[in-house]
Amino acid sequence: MESSSPGVVQCRKGPDDKPVMQDLRRKVGDIFTESDKMLDLHNKIRKYVPDEFQNDPINAASSVAEEDDAKAAKQARRQHRAAMTKTAKENSDRRAATADEVAQATKKQKTVDTQSAVV
User: Fold this and answer.
1) Bias regions of kind Basic and acidic residues — which residues (predicted)?
2) Is residue 9 a contact partner of residue 20, using CB atoms and an 8 Å limit?
3) Which of 13-17, 88-92, 97-101 has the lowest mean pLDDT?
4) CA–CA separation, 111 vs 54, rounded Å?
5) Model's pTM, two decimal places?
6) What phi, psi does 19 have (nearest 5°)?
7) Which of 42, 51, 106, 114 has the most CB atoms in a 10 Å sphere around its CB?
8) 70: buried, middle or exposed (CB in 10 Å: 19+, 13-18, 0-12)?
């Protein structure tokens, strides 16, 4: 890598091949944020953003389609959590019923310590 072009290297398949310049620097695009997160940012946080940053794209209002997508994602997440909670409770109840049928808790036996008795 040369100091005149940082992040650019020469690549060859073999020692006799012509070198190919390869740029290793990452190309950074726009910031990607999920639609439901953007909706929350706009509705809850925007009122606290200073005036000079109000027009920033991350604070922009969502379109109707984006709002619908965000609401659908939140609803799907809520339904999934409810289903997982219900399944976990059923499994827990089933395990508790099976454990009661299989084994009873044993009482701890009392032991007499003859070493510590004072004579």
Assistant:
1) 13-22, 87-98
2) no
3) 97-101
4) 75
5) 0.44
6) -70, 145
7) 42
8) buried
